[in-house]
Each structure stands twice: as C-alpha cells, then as structure tokens.
Amino acid sequence: xxxxxxxxxxxxxxxxxxxxxxxxxxxxxxxxxxxxxxxxxxxxxxxxxxxxxxxxxxxxxxxxxxxxxxxxxxxxxxxxxxxxxxxxxxxxxxxxxxxxxxxxxxxxxxxxxxxxxxxxxxxxxxxxxxx
Length: 131
Description:
Number of domains: 1
Largest sheet: 4 strands, antiparallel
Strand content: 15-25%
Oligomer: single chain
CATH topology: GIY-YIG endonuclease
Radius of gyration: 14 Å
Number of helices: 3
CATH class: Alpha Beta
Shape: globular
Order of helices and strands: EEEHHEH
C-alpha cells in the first residue's frame, strides 16, 4: 500500500516526530475531515493515540499500533476510513462527532512501549470506548 493508494486518499500521513520527540505527546488537534483533504498527523511507526471531545474534554478512546497512522485511518467507517476495525459503534461515533473530535499522538521505538502507555491511559481515564 502506498501513500498514493486511493484507499488512503483522505490525507497524507505525516510523521512530524523526530528522535527528540519520541515519548512526548503532540498537542491536541482536531481530527481531519478526509473528504476535505484533511491531513492526519501521526507516527508511521509504533505509537499511541488518544481521542476526546473538544467541547467537553470527555475521553473517547485510545489505542496503539505498530503503524499508528494507518491504524488511526480505521477510526472512520468506509468510505472515509480504511482497515478492518470491527467496532462499528466506535467508528460511527467518531464519524458523527467528527467536528468535535480532537486527537493527540505519541511515538515510541517499540510496540511494547506503546502498550505500556495505553495501560496507563486506560488506568487514568474513563473512556467512552475503553477497549
């Protein structure tokens, strides 16, 4: 799969994290509109992501992946999103509240480091979709 693949048409995945940014959260950003050419900023490699409602700060969901940007592209249902995520309610919620969804990401050297971060997030927050 390449970045010119039409399945990933909703934006270029940017890895704006340098070696000095490993283990540091990005600022909160509104989730991009794929059909308006929005660009998702997320690590291409191992990392974690965290979503919340901008209006209330309510934690929505968090997750990890070896390929974080690609995994985050599955947070929306087709045709806007990609991937094989099986939680339709989660995808529909993100799509229905897209104008109010913020995300942040963090890059790690390994998936195990990302998994430890996810455990901490789940222990410290009450997410609408905890799994």
